[in-house]
Predict the structure.
Amino acid sequence: MKETIRLILKGASMGVAEVIPGVSGGTLAFITGIYEKLLNAINAINISLIDVFKNEGFKGVWAKVDGDFLMKLLFGMALGFIVGLKIIVGLLESHPIHIWSFFFGLIIASIPLIARQVKSWGVLEIFFSILGFALVYWITIASPSTGSSNLAVVFLSGILGVSALMLPGLSGSFVLLLMGMYTIIMPAIENFLENPLGPEALIVIVFGAGMLIGLLTFSRLLGFTFDRYPNKTLALLSGFLLGSLNKVWPWQHVTSTRMNSKGEEVVMFSESVLPSTFSNLPENPLYGTDSHLFACVLLMVLAILLILTLDRFSSNS
């Protein structure tokens, strides 16, 4: 029972992360120690399951795909996603600096934990780490595009969004934001949860189909790289996490805003600044100019201690 609750909570943390532009569900999967197990379970979903079903029935298929693990994790992710939509997004709007400080601490504490899994650091590992950092950092400073409710674009956004979900350091929600699809997809999902038969149902279904295709294809690519090139893959993922720190840096100078589905003004794009610069800004929509430095540093420290505790607990279990 304890293991079930732990797995649901891990899934919930991933679900919450995927609502927030800048925080990756893949990062949380890595932090909580289920990343490779998740990849293996997803990669087990293939055409060979037909033969397994013929020979062993549904029970064999369930065992092949690690059904218990996936069911509990997906249940937790669904709960976390709903909580994220209803609560975390609201907290980000009312206390952005504090929430981002906590996430910053989570990620910065995770980088050495992942990097230490690289058994030997050579020239290629260093190159891939720098490449990963540069790619994700560039994504964090890229300008958002204008989205579209065209179903082909919705389908493509599902593929790209879930691919980012699978990569630590890359946020699926932030990729949607860059594509201009965040303000189309998130309100559609929120309205769909309230009215499953409403006009947004088709958008949600097509987006979900894109996610499914992206999940099944991209997970195989990741599984292949982990099997063949584990050190280089882990070095690349470490770089991804390092590059993502720019997006979750608490002190942001808001450069543009948008209206959400409720007609409320929220941050669309911002740039990282030092706390001293933040405090001296003449104005800063939604964030204000109070750096809350002591509280933010405290939250970072708490997040780092949480990750170190989880790591120690995972190592002893």
